[in-house]
Amino acid sequence: QNVTQTVEEEKPEPPTIQEIKQKIEKYNAKVTNCLLMKLNDDGTYTGFIKVHLKLRRPVTVPAGIRPQSIYDALKEVNLADMTAKRTSFYLPLDAIKQLHISSTTTVSEVIQALLKKFMVVDNPQKFALFKEMRKDGQVLFQKLPLTEYPLYLRLLAGPDTDVLSFVLKENETGEVEWDAFSIPELQNFLMILDKEEKEKILQVQRKYEKFKQRLQQTLKEARGKPG
Questions:
Q1: Is 67 exposed, middle or buried (0-12, 13-18, 19+ CB in 10 A)?
Q2: Which of 35, 63, 105, 145 has the most CB atoms around it within 10 Å of its CB?
Q3: pLDDT tens-digit profile of 37-57?
């Protein structure tokens, strides 16, 4: 059972550099791969987080854009700015993206980085980052404030993603805020819904056509039997 929590937690006092060093050493001792955390001289630290993308609605991306090359990444070329044409599609469910971030990287910056990597041009406010936890057989989702630091949460929880994982979802506010979508986005949504509706109608028609054929075959066989 999935449960979404919006409980505000009281923030503890920030740890000292020595405490951070001890936590990082404890964290790295549990790492089973090469994704270690590294402490910097100024007290900040860097590490990796994995984010699961669980988006139920289509996203908007540039139309006809080639995949980003290593050259583009090094030169920080934003391919999304190279065309005004847009299209919508569904990202694969449970797609996972790994990010190398700093202890000063906020939730807001993580969301923007994810959208940039997938060349999503939707407003970042349409998305939210959640932390996923398991307790008493339940899967609990808690929406993270934009000013939270995901790497610090990862450090506290340890490297085990069964204890804590991050999920990108739609920023649900109870009702869909259609005003936040542009006209082309809304038109794309209508096209997608129209296509899904037609496919569903065809599925129902095929189902009852097969049922009709079996029924006719049964009646034909019954007529041929004596009595």
A1: exposed
A2: 105
A3: 999 998 999 999 999 999 888
